[in-house]
Specification:
Blueprint: H1 4-8, E1 15-19, H2 27-34, E2 40-47, E3 54-62, H3 65-75, E4 79-80, E5 83-84, E6 86-89, H4 124-127, H5 140-162
Antiparallel strand pairs: 1-3, 1-6, 2-3, 4-5
GO molecular function, one term: RNA binding
Keywords: RNA-binding
Organism: Strix occidentalis caurina
Length: about 160
């Protein structure tokens, strides 16, 4: 686990984090800027999984540490696409495992979201009606809609048969 000291002064490495990017800065733009300092092994702009928009930061991977040092010294504070960027060594050693963008863990017994509630215990199992013996999305909700349709159709049919 990293400490606050690691965040303040990360060790030089071949991966640079580039922060404060415009939403319109592309990997091609970054490759063009950073390849001036040495050969790159990759460039990754980080996108929001739900919206597909840039989150405003990226990672640039160099083949050699000396090249990444030079790039950090020269590119830190430069203006790119109308934004002043910050460049620093990445504190992570590898890319993070992708996530679905939503919490997939077990529900908490507190119901989440902090703050007590006048002594009432919130339990997501009971709050959602699972204890009532039916699911609100079962056929039960739609049955009456079909019965009304059938009865109206039957009345029309009986009218036609009478005449």
């Amino acid at each position: 686990m990293s400490t606050s000291r690691d965040h303040a002064n990360p060790d030089p490495n071949t991966c640079l984090g580039v922060f404060g990017l415009s939403l319109y800065t592309t990997e091609r733009d970054l490759r063009e800027v950073f390849s001036r300092y040495g050969p790159l092994t990759g460039v990754n702009v980080v996108y929001d999984q739900r919206t597909g928009r840039s989150r405003g930061f990226a990672f640039v991977y160099f083949e050699r540490i000396d090249d990444s040092k030079e790039a950090m010294e020269h590119a830190n504070g430069m203006e790119l696409d109308g934004r002043r960027i910050r460049v620093d060594y990445s504190i992570t050693k590898r890319a993070h495992t992708p996530t679905p963008g939503i919490y997939m863990g077990r529900p908490t017994h507190s119901g989440g979201g902090g703050g007590g509630g006048a002594g009432r215990r919130r339990d997501s199992y009971y709050d959602r009606g699972y204890d009532r013996g039916y699911d609100r999305y079962e056929e039960y909700d739609y049955r009456y809609r079909y019965l009304i349709f059938i009865s109206v159709g039957t009345v029309d049919l009986l009218e036609k048969l009478k005449s």
